[in-house]
């Protein structure tokens, strides 16, 4: 993983990378009908959980997919989701 992060940094695409602590350290904040609820972790019923993130600035979706394939190869198994960020309008 360290080599991959180094490769991303050298390629100039790496903006940030972080791992998340287990859900037992987290909370969920929900709003329903204007009322908030706060639930302490852990969240054992969760089937999908964000374990970390890597923020890249790439030129295309295809480039993002190639970096993602390298990431999954480094982890050995799992699933990653690629999401595009909103960009602020210039001006």
What does this entry look like structurally?
The N and C termini lie far apart (39 Å). The chain is extended, with a radius of gyration of 17 Å. 27% of the residues lie in helices and 25% in strands. Strand 2 and strand 3 form a beta hairpin. The chain has 2 helices and 4 strands; from the N terminus they run αββββα. Strands 1-4 form a two-stranded antiparallel sheet. It has one domain: Dimeric alpha+beta barrel (Alpha-Beta Plaits). The protein is α+β, with helices and mostly antiparallel strands.
Concise structural overview:
The chain is an alpha+beta fold and 91 residues long.
* Measured distance between first and last alpha carbons: 39 Å
Q: What's the assembly state of these chains? A: single chain
The CATH C-level class name: Alpha Beta
Order of strands, main sheet, comes to 1-4
Total strand segments: 4
Q: CATH superfamily name?
A: Dimeric alpha+beta barrel
In CATH terms, what is the fold-level topology? Alpha-Beta Plaits
Note the run of SSEs as H and E.
HEEEEH
How would you state the average pLDDT, rounded? 88
CATH A-level architecture:
2-Layer Sandwich
Q: How many structural domains?
A: 1
- Rg for CA atoms: 17 Å
Largest sheet: 2 strands, antiparallel
- So what's the overall shape? extended
Contiguous runs where pLDDT drops below 50 for at least 5 residues = none
